[in-house]
Structures are given as C-alpha cells and as structure tokens.
Amino acid sequence: MSRTTDEKLVELRQLFPDYDSAGLLDVLVSCDGSLKRTKLLLGATSEGEPEPRTKRFKSQQTLSRFVKDTRVAATTVMSRSSKPIALHTKVEIETALKYCTYHTNVLPEDLAERLLQVTLNDPHYKATEFWLFGKKCTSNHLSRIFLPTTRPDALYYNGKQVTDYGVYCDEMMVTQVLIEDIVNEALSQRVRLPFQTKSDRWQAQAALSNKYERDSNLDWHSDRLTNIGPHPIIASLSLGFSREFRVRKTYPSDSQIYSIKPQHNSLLIMHAGFQEEYKHCVPLLPTRSRISTEDLHPTAGARRINITYRNYLIKDAIFCKLCGAPMDLRRMFKDPEKRGKYFYQCSKSYTEQNGFNEGNECKGFSYANFDNDPPLTDNEDHCSSWLDEDDIEPRAHSGTVRQAEA
C-alpha cells in the first residue's frame, strides 16, 4: 500500500531534524513524491541514513549530482491530476491562469531572428550558483543579466550586487520598446492590484535572459520580489525551440500542474499577482528519440532563449541589521492565518568555513510596509498584505483579513 505524503514527511523529519518541514516538502514534491530519491538528494546513504554533515559539504556540485536519476529534477511532481494539463491556445492559457496573458508573433520576423542569433552566440552566459540544504549547487541552464546602460544604479539580484552584466544590443533595445507597448495595452484591460507600479506606463529597466541547451532545465520557483517589488509584471519572451513551461499554484504544494509550450517569438506576460500565487519551472526535455525533427527550430535546434524584461520598483537594497547582508522580500503563504503578509528576511543563509559549507543562517527578519521609507515595520499589524480574491482558506481561518489599500 502506498504511503501518504504526511507519512513520508514524518520519516524525512526524523532523518533530517535540522531541515525546515516546508523545505522538505518542496524537495519531496520536486522528486515526484519518491521518498528514496528525496533521501539521496538530501545526502542520505544508500541505506537511508544521513551522511555526516561535514562529508556532504566538501565541494560545489551540480544539483543532478545528488540524484541517481538525473531526470528527476523538477520534471514532474505530485499533483491532483496524474499528469500536467496541457494548455494550447491563448484562451486556454488565460482562462486557466488568471494572472497571465499570452501573445504570439510579437516581433517582426527578422528582428526575432537577429536577437536569437545574438543571444545564442553570446559567450558570457553563466550557470547560476545557489544553495540547497547547505549544498552549494549550480544550475544546468545558463543566465545573463542585461542592462540598458554601462553605469547603472546599484542593483542587487539573489542577494548579490550585480557587477557582471551585458549592455543592451540594438536588437534588445528595440525589442523592449515593442514589448512595452504590448504590456501596456494588456494592462489597460486589467484591474490594477494594490502594489503594482503606480506609473501610468510600465517600463523595463533590465532584462534577465536564460539559455537552455537540450539537457537544461529550471527547477520550481517563484521569482524573488526583492527588487521587482510586490505585484511585479514580468514580460517573458521566448525565442528558438518551443520548450515546455509548467505552472502550478504556490499552495497547496500538490496543486494541479499546467503545461504551456510558448512558441518562438511569443510573449508570456506574468502579470501582477503571478509571482505571489504561482510557481513555475522548465522541465527536462524527453529523450532524443522522442523529439520530432519537425519540432526543432531551423536556427536554434533544440536550444531556447528566454528574455524576461523587468520593472524594478525597489531600487534601494534593504540590509540586515544583524549581519549587514542584503535582505530578500517575500510573502507568507504556508500558514493560512498569516498568508498574504510581506516580510524581509536576511539572504545570508550559508558561508564557507574551514573548507566546508556549514550552515550559518542569519535570523534577520522584518515585516514590510510599502508606505514607509525604508519599507520596514516591526509591527505585524502594520505590515503590508494582499490575498487573492479567490483564496478563501485564510478567511475561513480568521473570518476577516485586513486588505492593503489600493
């Protein structure tokens, strides 16, 4: 008889008592509910016992190194349905995902082709480094940040100041102008959420680009709100091969998964509310034999370029009072009674000491109040909060929830 998720979590908590329960659930979900794969990913031996802590943190490795089946990494997860529901048309996408709009053939064909070739041939894309339960890992897709100027204001991304970036080429600048028109036309037909940009016109100040080779993927995540702010609007341009893009509600973690395959030269606008309400990923491609030659892009083959144009609402970094490291802006969602509250948490999670990566998590924390300058408050009752109008679970717990004023 198959074991329930709760039963698996009980065993994981016994094996890994130092790990956060919500984090254990996220890893279990990304491993398709496999208890064995989750144990191996977290560093357990083949017998199921955790290895000594110092043995597991000796060197930097890729995430797939910790999973025997390298195709596990965020390709499929447990859901209410046995498999993702495919969304093929604009109507299907926008009906199922209330905070998305989908637009095809957004650039002139020759501009899309030139931009694709420029980014494919750019040698400066790099793998992203990140921490997972004390392990320093690298992504198996490549990324690069582009800015329209050579002298930008200080910009922080994933807890670090951006010093290595590319400057917009002519194609990227023209593309931004065209995309801004599409985004603003879409915004004119939507209800404004309380914390999205107050400007009459949405404008991007930077572009984050991801390059996916045939064997690349991107794990489940929501984009950090730290600089793009609450209720951000991100315009995601797809070029080259049409890769699957999966989306699910952030809570509960076993929510139905939806699958989209954005076409070459298409734009998926993740509107205000998307990052708060959804997680997304780019799963691994199926095996080579299952990819039709007709599906390959004539220039990119099985490679995909994704360029996300972003509006940075919060330009000044918030630094931790305890350690001085930059702080990350997040929104509570796990506890229904606190769901919707925004807060700042220190981004300093782990440091290298004595040759090992040992946990040195900083406890720096503050509630966020976007009416303040800086946007901080120590009073939970004064923190900024927002709930999706369809989210009835917190209301069922508390009866009433203070909504942020528009």
From TrEMBL:
Has keyword Zinc-finger? yes
Q: Which InterPro entries match?
A: AlkB-like, AlkB-like_sf, ALKBH3, Oxoglu/Fe-dep_dioxygenase_dom, Znf_GRF
Residues of the signal sequence? none
Domain of life where this protein originates: Eukaryota
- GO BP terms: DNA alkylation repair
Q: Which GO terms describe its molecular function?
A: dioxygenase activity; zinc ion binding
Pinpoint the GRF-type domain residues. 320-371
Reply yes or no: does the keyword Zinc-finger apply.
yes
The record, for CDD domains, names: CUE
What are the UniProt keywords, alphabetically? Answer: Metal-binding, Zinc, Zinc-finger
What region holds the Fe2OG dioxygenase domain? 203-313
**What is this protein's record name?**
LAME_0G00364g1_1
